[in-house]
Amino acid sequence: MHNNIILTDCDGVLCDWMYSFNAFMEMQGFKQKALSYDVNEFYGIDRKIGKAKVKEFNDSAAIAFLPPLRDSVYYMKRLNMLHGYKFHVITSLSSNKYAQRLRKQNLDLLFGEELFDEIICLPCGADKDKVLEQYKDSGCYWIEDKVENAVVGDRLGLHSVLVGHDFNANDYDDDPYAHDDDSAHIPRFYKWKHIYNYITGEGHNEI
């Protein structure tokens, strides 16, 4: 049923959300303080301020103009055209219907609407557990950049793959949601080329 479906996060996986969000924050005088997935730690700001800024950005028109992440467009199109894969996007973006439309517009323009069977938009910062449970034991690939979410998918019988970033380079043993090396076996690739090779069995992935 799901053998031709690839599940993906959006920000930090398909699109370079951090690049655009950082430009948005710098325009308001915020500067990077630390290397972290957590916006509050990244900018050294209060949690309430960080949450408000993420929501403000996600609900803005900027969400329609995010650039693609690295080589994602080329290799996702190859997965679709050469191997017949379709994508279900699971993104904790916003409950704002206009922001959701802008997300779809951005993805369709970057990748082509024929790649996406579903774009599931959850409220900003929402957990993805319940949506992922719908694919339990399906064996679908689940492409994420947050270790916590990759571990959840792995526990549900999905083939989790981490998109590599500086902030998650050492998260395997440090993530509070991972226990007893839950995340140690989850493959982590910086380039979509390597994700493509991993899924299709083509080529050779550099370490």
Strands, helices and their partners?
Layout: E1 5-8, H1 17-26, H2 39-43, H3 47-58, H4 72-83, E2 86-92, H5 97-111, E3 116-122, H6 129-133, E4 141-144, H7 147-155, E5 159-163, H8 171-174, E6 188-189, H9 192-200
Parallel strand pairs: 1-2, 1-4, 2-3, 4-5, 5-6
Q: What are the key terms here?
A:
Rossmann fold; 9 helices; single chain; 207 residues; 2 domains; globular
Would you write up a description of this structure?
The protein is of the alpha/beta class and 207 residues long. It folds into two domains: 5-16 and 66-200, HAD superfamily/HAD-like (Rossmann fold, 3-Layer(aba) Sandwich); 18-65, no CATH class. 39% of the residues lie in helices and 14% in strands. The protein contains nine helices and six strands, in the order E-H-H-H-H-E-H-E-H-E-H-E-H-E-H. Strands 3-2-1-4-5-6 form a six-stranded parallel sheet, with helices on both faces. Strand 2 (86-92), helix 5 and strand 3 (116-122) form a beta-alpha-beta unit. Helix 4 (72-83) packs parallel to helix 9 (192-200). Residues 172-180 have low confidence and may be disordered.
